[in-house]
Each structure stands twice: as C-alpha cells, then as structure tokens.
Amino acid sequence: MIFRFFHPFLLLLFTQFVLLQAFTGTYGINYGRIADNIPSPDEVVTLLRASKIRNIRIYDADHSVLKAFSGTGLEIVIGVTNGQLQDMSSSADHALNWVKENVQAFLPETRIRGIAIGNEVLGGSDNALWGVLLDAAKNVYNATKKLHLDKIIEISTANSFAVFQDSYPPSSCKFDNNVKQYMKPLLEFFQQIGSPFCLNAYPFLAYVSNPEDIDINYALFQPTKGIYDPKFKLHYDNMLDAQIDAAYAALEDAGFHKMEVIVTETGWASAGDQTEPGANVTNARTYNYNLRKRLAKKKGTPHRPKNVVKAYIFAIFNEDSKNGPTSERNYGLFKADGSISYNVGYHGLNAGYSSHLSLKDINTQGLSRSYTITMILCLSALILMIF
Ligand SMILES: *[C@@H]1O[C@H](CO)[C@@H](O)[C@H](O)[C@H]1NC(C)=O
Ligand SMILES: *[C@@H]1O[C@H](CO)[C@@H](O)[C@H](O)[C@H]1NC(C)=O
After folding, report:
1. What angle do CA 280, 286, 289 make, to 5 degrees?
2. How far does the signal peptide extend, from start to end residue (predicted)?
3. For site-directed labelling of 282, which of 52, 67, 147, 268 has its Cα 20 to 30 A away?
4. Which residues are designated catalytic?
C-alpha cells in the first residue's frame, strides 16, 4: 500500500528530470512478429541483451512482449496498429482506455518510451486513414497527458518515402502534393509536443526500383564516387545519408526547420525474387555491417552535421507469414530458429556455433580474422571436451 501511495509521486519526480526522448542510443531494432516460427519473447530478450541492443520497436502492444521486457532495461516503442486508428480518432475514451491497459499498466517496470500511431499511413494505399491519423495522435497524446505520462512517452508516426516527391537530389525533396494537406497539421502538432519526424528509409528499395542508374556500392556504404547535390553544395558518399537529408529538405520546404529526423526502419533483404536484384546474403551483410559502423560513429549527415543519425534496423527476424515479394520475408538479422542470418558481429541463440565479436573487434581486426579465431577456439574446445 505504501508503495502504491508513493508511486505516482515518484513517477512525477522522475518525469521532471528525464528529457523526453524515446531513442537514447543510435542503434535500435524492430521486432516484427508476423511469423509462426520465431523464438518466444523471453528468448528475444536473451538475444537482445547478448547483442547489447537496447532500443526496440514493436508494431502493436502485445502483452506477452511487454511482460517479457519487464525489468530488463530494454527501451521499447509500441504501436497503435492501422486497424485501430479509426477507433482512436473517434473516441477520446477509447484512447484513454488503450493507454491505461497497454502503457500505464506496464510502467515503470517495462520501459515503454514511445507510441507510434499507425505505420506508413500517409501516402499509403488506405486513403481513408489519412484523415484520421491526426485525431488519433491527438487523442492518444491527450490520454498520456491525463495520466501524467506525456513527459516519458513520445508520440510519433513512421513515414515511408511515399510521402515525398522529387527526392533526388536531396535538396529538391518536398512532400507529395496529395499528402501535404494531411502532413502539415500533423507536423504542427508534433512540433508542439516535441516529437521527431520518423522515416522508414530503404536504399535497398531505391536500388531495386532502378538498378541500372544506381551504383550498388553507394547504396551499401561501400567505396564509391557518390553524388553531388548542387543546391546544397554537398557531396554524399552513401544513400542513407542522402535519404535522411531529403527528409530534412522536405521538412524545411514545409516550414519545419528544427524538427529532427529519426530512421525508424532501415535494412536489406538477404533473399528476393528475380525482380529484386541485389537481395542476397552478401549484400545484406555488407549493408548491415557498414550501417552498424556508420551509426557507431555518432555523426550527423552532410546537411545536418549536428543531428547524430539514429536508426532502428529492420528487423530482428525473418518473418515467414508476411505477404508481398520474397524480400519481405527475409530482412532478419536472425533466422526464425534464432541463428544469425549472416555475420555482422552478433551471435545467435545457439551461441556456441557463431562468433562472439564485439563492434570493437570488427573495427580493429576486420571480420574474417576474428571469425576464424573464434571458430578455431570453438573447435579446440569441442576437441578438448571429446577427449
Ligand atoms: C486535448 O486536450 C486539450 C486540453 O487539455 C483540449 O483542448 C483538446 O481539445 C483535446 N484534444 C482532443 C483531440 O481531445
Ligand atoms: C549478390 O549480388 C551481388 C550483386 O549485387 C553479386 O555480386 C554477388 O555475387 C551476389 N552474392 C551471392 C552470394 O549471390
């Protein structure tokens, strides 16, 4: 009882000193679960802790996940699904109950830090949702405010590249004409409450749509001559930086000069259809390995050097129940059995059989050498055990 009595007070004290920021590191990961064969949430916690990944996004508010994350220190952003948007926008009570049941009930043991309102709604195929997104966001925000959670829970929504037009070169990027009337008031609201612009950025998809004109090395953070943006007077040596600066350019064009861009999804498929050139294990490893190094530098982009790039990788697992092209089911850093899809320095659930690299090892020694050493050590241990 005493604890319950003090609890709101402590929470209030806590919120006074914590800056509202859902993403505390630079490297996070999306935990998509459209699969019938992936490890349990408890095993995922083990996997994430071993990989030292602390920032996680899920696409719903699944209670088995929220329970498994309790007391782990993992920071999680949860989601209102697109299917729930209509209800959230039409009823403040509905939003309040949702926040009580899916957020308040799990705090503070489960570190819920943000709520994503829908996913890739604007510019997406379900036009009926474009007009309800803002009211859904407002109702959910008001609910967090009513429950005194607005200082620890960040409200946002992830945008795909479908919200833009003319994204090449970056300086020419604008919000699409059809999207603009919905985007502007949404951004005004996010600006008021201090939320960032969330971008799902896939050099992979840009490359697949135009493999003749795009140098794959530019998409993969490999050595390349890059591109020059004449208006920005800036040089880009990788496409992800250019995509982020395209988002900044669109925000500036719409009058939002201070808003930060956060990458809520990026990744590369390790398998794809005939029509998806570049989707293979070699390229997926190269992208994710170089991306990890890029984020570890804690640097901004050419146009916004002071805004350190933060990104959530897509995704933890290959998801076998997803629709669409083969690539959709093959974005995982891990396979459904918990083993690694390719080596970027993490080890799988069956840890003995994969490497134990840290990022430092990768940077200083190069991958193949320490991988070989680890394999030799594992083999020697095995031989010792046998004899
Ligand atoms: C949110 O709350 C504010 C006052 O706290 C109110 O003015 C506003 O109308 C509310 N918004 C919605 C969508 O209910
Ligand atoms: C992956 O694709 C690249 C071209 O993008 C090719 O050079 C490479 O050989 C392919 N790797 C595998 C394992 O198929």
Report:
1. 130
2. 1-22
3. 52
4. 120, 265
